[in-house]
Amino acid sequence: EQLGRLGPKLIDQHRAMLANSQAAEMLLSHGLVEITRFAARR
To answer: What average pLDDT does this structure show over 31-40?
Structure first.
């Protein structure tokens, strides 16, 4: 179930990066931090 929610979040992240290429690196970093924090809690 948790993994099922990852797909839509990654798609949203990808769309945000495409919409704002100047901030793509920051958006990617933020998204990876969120994934890492979630994984660390498990």
So the answer is: 88
* CA atoms of 40 and 30, how far apart (whole Å): 15
Q: Which of 11, 38, 34, 5 is nearest to 26 (CA)?
A: 34
Backbone φ, ψ for residue 20 (5° rounding): -135, 80
Q: Which residue has the tokens 């495409």?
A: 18
Instruction: Report d(CA 6, CA 35) in Å as an integer.
Output: 9
| 17-25, Cβ contacts within 8 angstroms, sequence gap of 24 or more | none
Q: Is the pTM of this model over 0.85?
A: no
Q: Which domain holds residue 30?
A: 2-41
Domain count for the chain = 1
